[in-house]
Amino acid sequence: LSFDYVTKTMLFSWQEKDKIGVFPYTADNTSTQSVFNVDKVLSNHKASFKTNDGDVAFNITKGTTYLSYLPVNANNEGGSNSVPVSFRNQVQNNIVDMKNYYAEGSDRKAYEASEVKAGEHLPKYDYQTSTAVSPVDGSLHFEYQRLSSIVRFFLKVTDQITYDEIYVINKEADFIVDAKMDISKSVSADAFTNPVTSHSVSLKLGENGFKVWDDTETKNKCVLWSNRYGKAYIVLYMMFAPIDLKSLGVKSTLYVIGHDSDNNKRYYKATLSKINIAQNKVQQWAPAQMDDPDGAIELTPVQVEEWLEDTNFDNEGTGTDDW
């Protein structure tokens, strides 16, 4: 994973630990997967693979087409039309070092490196499939397309507390939280079948939350970026299954939940703009451009009763909710 500040893009690259799943294509989807490990990383976007240690030798058969996907689910016992996927339990463990946002040179590199670390949880949910391929000279050459979507949140906070979790809520939306992936449907988001949906999705902020410290504090390892105006900025990343929220006619709500030094829960709320969370896109859910901190999502403190009302999904929508 790398971050390009000029183009505002995150680039996913092959790593030596990566694995892919491969199926011989059959019309009845009865074939079983074989797991391949990276053998050599040839470039950022190209790698060669070998069969997983302990697997029976994989025979590439002339006249057979093959399907592939990643990240591999090693426990998948179904066919190529029923690979389990999930967008639950996302945890961002690293903060973006906003202190160096306007810096140059090595300090700028520190900011870019921290942006990369902030997205380290994403590849686990970065579901990709390849079109069906036939053998060429005894080898298989797969090209992958991302099925899911990356959303970046740019939040402005004013209270120096610990921020623990965020929720995106829309009572008219059915966010996919679990599904089967039919890789025979190739590179379309229609590959997500048999979905379990919810009116809300969440992201946990580290194991113990992200604590915002004032610039004068000595424990500056947790500074997200405070300035003399009493503001701090938090950058967060989530992976979504594609969903067009523009067409619903109802704006989504963002909740941020934290706790103060006395361990009292604190609730914050913001109304989000309508966006189309499109397949294979990186989008920012904020009212202004990424390089305009004062255009970040502003949070309003609310009471727990408002949170409970907004998360009361009884008899609403078609989602299977997680409350």
Features:
seven-stranded mixed β-sheet; disordered C terminus; mainly beta; 24 strands
Structural write-up:
The chain starts with a strand and ends in a 13-residue tail after the last helix. It is 7% helix and 37% strand. The chain is mainly beta and 323 residues long. Strand 4 (34-43) and strand 5 form a beta hairpin. The radius of gyration is 22 Å and the shape is globular. The strands form six sheets. Strands 8, 12, 15, 16, 19, 20 and 24 form a seven-stranded mixed β-sheet that branches. It contains two helices and 24 strands.
In short:
The protein has 323 residues and is mostly beta strands. It has two helices and 24 strands.
| Major sheet summary line | 7 strands, mixed
Span of the ends, CA to CA: 33 Å
Order of helices and strands: EEEEEEEEHEEEEEEEEEEEEEEEEH
**Mean pLDDT rating:** 83
Rg measurement, Å: 22 Å
Task: Please give the share of residues in helix.
Answer: under 10%
* Shape assignment: globular
Which structural class best describes the helix and strand composition? mainly beta
Q: Can you count the beta strands? A: 24
In terms of per-residue confidence, which ranges show pLDDT below 50 for 5 or more consecutive residues? 217-228, 315-323
Question: Secondary structure elements and their pairing?
Answer:
Elements: E1 2-4, E2 9-11, E3 19-24, E4 34-43, E5 46-51, E6 66-70, E7 83-86, E8 91-92, H1 105-118, E9 128-130, E10 144-146, E11 149-157, E12 162-169, E13 175-181, E14 192-198, E15 200-205, E16 210-211, E17 232-240, E18 243-244, E19 253-259, E20 265-271, E21 276-277, E22 282-284, E23 297-298, E24 300-302, H2 304-310
